[in-house]
User: Which sequence fits this backbone?
C-alpha cells in the first residue's frame, strides 16, 4: 500500500501531466477558435520559421528519447538489489567525457547555423516591399501608409501575395507585434524603429496580439491583418483617401456629429475634413473610415452597434486603464454618436 501523502502527490503529478497533454494537443490540432496558431503558416516568412521549428523539434525529441531512455535503462539495470556489487564507476573517463561534450556541441552548432540564417533573413526587408508603419499605443495599433497618406487603426489591410515591410515604433511603452500566421514576434520600442516583414499568400483575415506585457489592458491589445487581392487593395486605398460623408442636420447621425464635436472626442480622434487634428504622441485611433474595420477599441471586440454603444458608455470599464475616459454621455448622446460613427464608411 502506498502511504496517503505519496498517493496524493502521484495523483497531482498525473493531473498535471494530463493538463499538459491536453494543452499540447490543443496547440497542435489548432482548434478553429484559436486563431493564434504558430504551427499553421500562411506566408513565406511564417513558413521560414516553421521550416526551422520542425527539424529542431524532431532533434530535441530524439535527444529526449535517447537521454530519458538511457536514464530508465540505467535505473532498472543498475538498481539496488540484495548482494548487488557496486557497478563499475566511470568518473574521469576521458573518452566518455569527450564524447558527451562533442555530440551536444555538434547538435547545437547544426541548429545554430540555420537559426542565425533565418534570423538575419527575417530582419531585413526585401527590395520593393510595400512600406507601412505600425505604431504601438496603450492599447491599440496604429497603421500608416506613407506612400498613400493613409492613417488607420486596428486592422492592417495588405495586398495578398506581396511583401509588406512594416517600420515599427511605439509612442509609449514597449509592445510586440505578433501575427503568428504571417511571421514571428517583433518588438515596437519607443524611440527606435524595428522592421517586420509580412506576407500572406492568400486573401484572408489573420489575427494577431500584442505579445509583450504593456500595462493593464495588454491582453485586450489585439491586431488584425486583412489580406486582399491587388484590385481590392487599390479600391481600399481609394476609399480610404476619399473624405467621409457629412451627415445631414436633423438626423440622428447629424446630432451625433454635434456630440462628436462638442463632448471631448476631438481632443484625441481625427476625422478627415471634419476636425483635422495633428496626430501626436497622445492620440486615439483615426476615425475617418471607422466602419471599414469590423472591430473596435484595439480590435478587442468585433464591431456591432451594441458593442460600440457599450464601449462609448464606459470605455475604462470595458478596457481597464483605457485612456478614453467615461465622458458621461447620456443614452441619447450614445445613440446619436453611434449613428454618426456608422456613417464613417
Ligand atoms: Cu501592447 Cu501588450
Assistant:
Amino acid at each position: 500500500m502506498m502511504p496517503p501523502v505519496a498517493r496524493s502527490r502521484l495523483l497531482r503529478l498525473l493531473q498535471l501531466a494530463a493538463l499538459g497533454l491536453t494543452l499540447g494537443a490543443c496547440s497542435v490540432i489548432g482548434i478553429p477558435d484559436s486563431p493564434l496558431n504558430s504551427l499553421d503558416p500562411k506566408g513565406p516568412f511564417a513558413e521560414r520559421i516553421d521550416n526551422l521549428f520542425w527539424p529542431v523539434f524532431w532533434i530535441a525529441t530524439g535527444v529526449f528519447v535517447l537521454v530519458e531512455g538511457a536514464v530508465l535503462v540505467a535505473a532498472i539495470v543498475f538498481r539496488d538489489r540484495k548482494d548487488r556489487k557496486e557497478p563499475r564507476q566511470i568518473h574521469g573517463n576521458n573518452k566518455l567525457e569527450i564524447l558527451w561534450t562533442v555530440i551536444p556541441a555538434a547538435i547545437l552548432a547544426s541548429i545554430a547555423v540555420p537559426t542565425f540564417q533565418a534570423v538575419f533573413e527575417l530582419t531585413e526587408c526585401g527590395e520593393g516591399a510595400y512600406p507601412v508603419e505600425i505604431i504601438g499605443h496603450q492599447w491599440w495599433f496604429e497603421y500608416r501608409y506613407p506612400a498613400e497618406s493613409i492613417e488607420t487603426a486596428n486592422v492592417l489591410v495588405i495586398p495578398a501575395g506581396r511583401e509588406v515591410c512594416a517600420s515599427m515604433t511605439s509612442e509609449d511603452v514597449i509592445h510586440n507585434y505578433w501575427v503568428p500566421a504571417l511571421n514571428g514576434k517583433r518588438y515596437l520600442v519607443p524611440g527606435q524603429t524595428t522592421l517586420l516583414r509580412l506576407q500572406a499568400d492568400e486573401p484572408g483575415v489573420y489575427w494577431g496580439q500584442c505579445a509583450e506585457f504593456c500595462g493593464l489592458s495588454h491582453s485586450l491589445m489585439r491586431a488584425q491583418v486583412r489580406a486582399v487581392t491587388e484590385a481590392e487593395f487599390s479600391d481600399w486605398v481609394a476609399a480610404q483617401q476619399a473624405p467621409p460623408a457629412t451627415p445631414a442636420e436633423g438626423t440622428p447621425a447629424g446630432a451625433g456629429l454635434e456630440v462628436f464635436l462638442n463632448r471631448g472626442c476631438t481632443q484625441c480622434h481625427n476625422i478627415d475634413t471634419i476636425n483635422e487634428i495633428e496626430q501626436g504622441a497622445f492620440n486615439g485611433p483615426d476615425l475617418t473610415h471607422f466602419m471599414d474595420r469590423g472591430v473596435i477599441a484595439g480590435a478587442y471586440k468585433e464591431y456591432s452597434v451594441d458593442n460600440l454603444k457599450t464601449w462609448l458608455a464606459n470605455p475604462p470599464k470595458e478596457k481597464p486603464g483605457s485612456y478614453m475616459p467615461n465622458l458621461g454621455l447620456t443614452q441619447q448622446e450614445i445613440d446619436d454618436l453611434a449613428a454618426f460613427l456608422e456613417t464613417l464608411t
